[in-house]
Task: structure prediction
Amino acid sequence: MPDFFIIGGDAAGLSAAVQIKRKIPDAYLKVINKGEIISYAACGIPYVISGDIPSAEKLVHFTPESMEKKKGISVEIGKEAMEIFPEENAVGVKDLKTGKHYKEKYKKLLIATGTVPNKLPFIDYKEEGVFCLSNIQDLKQVLSYLRDQQPQKAAIIGAGNIGLELAEGLVSRGINVHIFELLPEPAITWPSLIREAIKKKMDEKNIQFSGGASVKEVTKKGKSFTLKTKEDSHEFDVVFSVAGAKPATDFCPEKIKTLDNGALIIDQKGNTSEPDIYSAGDCASVYHKVLDRNVYFPLGSTANKMGRISGMNMAGKDISFPGIVGTQIFKFFELSLAKTGLSLEEAEKEKIDADVSLALRLDKAGYYPDSRKAKAEIIYQKPSGKILGASVSTEGNAAQLIDPVAVAVFAGLNVKQLGWFDAAYTPPFAPVWNAWVSASLKHKLG
Ligand SMILES: Cc1cc2nc3c(=O)[nH]c(=O)nc-3n(C[C@H](O)[C@H](O)[C@H](O)COP(=O)(O)OP(=O)(O)OC[C@H]3O[C@@H](n4cnc5c(N)ncnc54)[C@H](O)[C@@H]3O)c2cc1C
Result:
């Protein structure tokens, strides 16, 4: 019987496995993975489509063989967990090659199964030319289709981060893109400052955007797809369905407590509600420090950290994850867009009395070549001035800008304190007035 059994061989599962092996080198540990490819960077998929990254293989860090050789971790691919029997400390596994079902016992179990893409009822996903985009297998199929069929017109259903990153990739290949989104705006979970920048960029790049568009039907005739909304109908050569994803937890027993969307509720050590069963990554919830509750916030950054934390605790350490503050970033053509903490809309939804300060700054001295504008906003609570969040849109590097505010939100700093923070300045790299110093000093707290 393995001492440690891990379901899922990517970011969260393998981060945990590495920690267990580090702490207990002779641990009997087994990882199973449904897909054939393990240890891959799904985050890089849009950039293989755009051609910035030359091949899908570049996104794979370890094969099962190299994982065994370099880390001493055995990963069995093509094995799917079908059921968990907590009272027996056992998992029901299906060997996808042979069809054989068997039970695997464990002393400690980690569920790190990630997500499954939401499937829309009016789409036949078996049609050639219809794609989701959640893993390397999907990516390889997309690349073959783009190479062999040379599509000219693409429909993307869903205008979240992945839909937008995909749009950029397709436009870079000279493909016409039309995005359909049920909600009125693209990137609806992002603040208006970011959404406005995205809409402007879409116009600039001739991406058609249909907001508030409920797609009713997708049919294929010959090589062409007809996509119908309530209002009209359009023809395409290829259809991408990227309308969100849900935690891959359908096989888990009901006694493991979940959020409404099926994400396994875990504590800050990675424990689920059942003894000896841990979870991490996109199939699990995570503690949000600003909201002071568990939320669903699936990101690679968190999956790696929570996997590591769970693995350490499974191996006998006692370590707690302090929580996320909701920091995220993505690229849309020349734009670098980032957010941390809460937006004003989110603060209002939480019934927090909040205000916003804006700053328009350059990312280096104005007289220095290639200085680029950054539009930044900081959200703070009234009357305390506690920083709740921030967002930034720039053609420079938004990661560099958002990170100090992520620290400020994490540390519970006040907007008056951030107003005088000792930011770096030299003309080639930073302006004399840092965007956050400017925004913070404009607070309206008196
Ligand atoms: C296109 C795209 C772009 C992204 N960009 C970013 C980004 O820029 N920044 C960011 O932070 N995040 C990004 N993400 C999200 C990031 O990739 C995920 O948060 C991360 O991969 C989650 O890791 P995970 O280990 O929890 O799950 P996954 O990576 O989904 O791995 C789960 C593994 O479990 C296996 N599995 C599933 N069910 C079973 C089962 N029943 N039995 C056995 N095995 C099973 C699967 O085969 C899979 O290998 C992006 C995702 C995509 C798809």
